[in-house]
Amino acid sequence: MASIKDVAAEAGLSVATVSRVLNGHPSVSEDARRRVTAAVERLGYRPNAVARSLRTDRTRTLGLVISDVMNPYFTELARAVEEEARALGYSVIIGNADERPDLQDHHVTTLLDRRIDGLLVSPTDGGSPGMLGAARAGTPMVFVDRWIPGVDVPVVRSDGRGAVRDLVAHLYGLGHRRLAIIAGPAATTTGRERVDAFREALGAYGLPLPEAYIGQGDFQAGSGRLVTEGFLDLAEPPEAVFAADNLMALGALDAIRARGMRVPDDIALAAFDDIPWFVHTDPPVTAIAQPTGELGRAAVRALVDRIGGRTGASVTLPARLVVRRSCGEPAAQEPPSPARRSTP
Amino acid sequence: MASIKDVAAEAGLSVATVSRVLNGHPSVSEDARRRVTAAVERLGYRPNAVARSLRTDRTRTLGLVISDVMNPYFTELARAVEEEARALGYSVIIGNADERPDLQDHHVTTLLDRRIDGLLVSPTDGGSPGMLGAARAGTPMVFVDRWIPGVDVPVVRSDGRGAVRDLVAHLYGLGHRRLAIIAGPAATTTGRERVDAFREALGAYGLPLPEAYIGQGDFQAGSGRLVTEGFLDLAEPPEAVFAADNLMALGALDAIRARGMRVPDDIALAAFDDIPWFVHTDPPVTAIAQPTGELGRAAVRALVDRIGGRTGASVTLPARLVVRRSCGEPAAQEPPSPARRSTP
DNA sequence: CCTCCTCGTGGAATCGATTACACGAGGGAT
DNA sequence: ATCCCTCGTGTAATCGATTCCACGAGGAGG
Q1: C-alpha distances in angstroms, B174 versus A71, A166, B231, B276, B327?
Q2: Which residues of A touch B279 (CB under 8 A)?
Q3: Domains in chain A and their CATH numbers?
Q4: Is the C-beta of residue B112 closer than 7 Å to nucleic acid chain C?
Q5: What is the value of pTM for the model shown?
Q6: Is the pLDDT of residue B99 over 60?
């Protein structure tokens, strides 16, 4: 592959001049510029990004470590991140942690070894050594979706509190009183927060959240299935189940179907994170939608700010409830309402 | 960040010796090895992958350019690729082409600039200039899922012909005679092959595939919706629709639901590519499942073979039909069968 | 005792770029 | 005519590793 030396020889100029042309440096004659461009063209020359990075100490690359690529929420996030990064002249390398702290650490170290300019992380746990090290070492870093308390890094996330309140109101309005949640890992902020928000919203209606109605999941479909089976085995099973992410909702659907039960007649279901498939499941699933794309873009902007030496502020965007049929029929058509039954 | 020089100084040895220890070179004294290891530990030193790559001309990185990350099929492929690559000591950088040739070319050139050791591509089109250039320039390369005829590059893919025959047999057995297909872009091999296989299978039953029953899609949900609307507007709409990928099937479902029609009663639906959500859609969708993970792993192995100078053979794995309810009830319970109706 | 290997080590070249510094040519001001 | 700038260019140092080559010490063999 042709190097800058070959171009210099071909153009009859020094490598310094070639480099200047390549980088749009002002003090280059029009003649030299033309000769270099022609030589580049003839040789099909492309600058070696590796060599350039070594010299400039900048790779124009961002690292993104996400918890689980197979989760459509994170895929969408990754896509938005890559788009915004590309618009700002950066590439992104994605590392998939698969909800495993050891894999997360592997990716963080690999990315750091590659000397990426900045790191976007959605931490799987409370803070693996590699990640905390990176944060302390001053690597430009931004947390997205999840974060680690006590670490001084901007956080770009979405606040589901309001939407969870709306969800509980919706469930309450539909007559459900025994509400359960499939929680995410306690080591993650989103794992804890969603439970807290749910409990708080329940409290506003004077409803309890007994321990038996808090199932411990791991954000994967399998755990959603297991936890739901546990709920169904209870002497007094819940009337509604709220899954803290879309994959666990899929697992819950599996478990409910395996029992020959039906949603929402036998049990209501709602999920955190809205995805295109929820429109077409049987029944369509009521979900809390995050502004995923905007989250990804904001995170990249914050990170690039950090890289550029600016502060890079935290961002919190609201999530919103999207009502479908998995919790019961909307009030307008709700047949067993006493008020309506008496009117005709 | 500490460099090899710092380690050498700390250990009281030359950089050459440090490098030898780091790379497990045999002729190093036990004493030197210990001192270097200790110095590395003390300084928290990690070798700079950029510098190493410049010198050795190997990045231990693979590029993967896929057509669309948001498509669960490709996400699963990407995950398998990363896993196998990691097992073999490689990282992978994913480029998402979003079914756009220009984006595909952007990623190919960016990856080449980064001097990746090998390239895995699922081409979006008939061959963009950058990609063909890479192939000609001798970059180790393997096509996965889709390929470009006439280019001398190993192909790892799945053969759907048998499964498509099974599907047509299934549809025929259920009484469907007017069968339509939502095709992928003609520029892709999978776009063409699936139509060909479908037509061939239809022929075996003496069924035609009229032009009006071949809808031109682009592997995205939107096109599935549009094409299906067109089918539904026909004077004689098809009785069954076969979508050439899962996203177009999603779009088809959208369109059918928007008309207030039901699957499979009003129209049957089947898809190429099986995904977890198809179990829970309304109704569960009959699909052709590819051995996606195995495809990804085989592709990586072939590519690494190529990088190591070996041949790296093409691989073709069979797909299989997974019957669910979207084409009609299984024969055992099929109510409107004349044979059964006469018996009671 | 001398020669020849082997072994461990260090010096220095190298990969392909960027960039500080030096230098010569040419133009404007005095 | 002299001086000083500016402009365009080239030389060479540099980034952080790997690796060829040379060298000295020590052991084996003659």
Answers
A1: 35, 45, 20, 25, 8
A2: 254
A3: 4-47 (1.10.260.40), 59-157+292-317 (3.40.50.2300), 161-289 (3.40.50.2300)
A4: no
A5: 0.91
A6: yes
